[in-house]
Amino acid sequence: MNDFEIFTKNLFSSEDISAFTDQIELARGLIYRASGSSFLEKVAGKISGDFEQAVSNLESQGKLPKTPKELDKFLDSLDGFVERLPRVKIKLAFSPGREFLAKVSGWFEKELGQKIILDISLEPKIIGGMVIEYKGQYRDYSLSNQIENIIKKKQGNNAG
Asked: What's the pLDDT tens digit per position in 41-72?
């Protein structure tokens, strides 16, 4: 596991990435404050708990840069790493909760062998199930598609 992966364990969706990027920018703004303090002391209580915990873990292991300039470069690299995480587009008929996102993201991570970010869009007309798009592959596991296929099959049987 590289040093950036500790930051991504609770990132599941594009919305999470956006919020995380905001946390990076907030942390970046705190780098140059209170010279002589550790990075953790500068950001403690001012950034999200997950971000703060990751900073704490890396700092306790001596893996965080010490100077503001090096920290700024570290945050740039972290931002780039997170933005390059592969995305899977998913259409759902409902707005998913964190538990659902964690399970689906975990399944993709297990199957594909890498961290995956879900790019969720709401599409009520699919009724249920999901439509998945990844690296040019498209799979429609929606209820509306299944209903449509049943209707086509029955119409085909009635025609003959």
From this structure: 999 999 999 999 999 999 999 999 989 999 99
Task: Could you list the beta-strand ranges (E) of the chain.
Answer: 87-92, 117-122, 129-134, 137-142
Question: Do 81 and 90 meet the contact criterion of CB atoms below 8 Å apart?
Answer: no
Is 102 found in the same domain as 76? no
Between CA 102 and CA 5 the distance in angstroms is 16
Q: Which residues contact 109 (CB under 8 A, 6 or more apart)?
A: 115, 116
The tens digit of pLDDT for each residue in 128-151 reads: 999 999 999 999 999 999 999 999
Query: Of 52, 83, 114, which residue constitutes the final position of a domain?
Result: 83
Give Cα 1 distance to the centre of its chain.
17
Bridge partners of residue 141, in order along the sequence: 130
Number of compact structural domains in the chain: 2
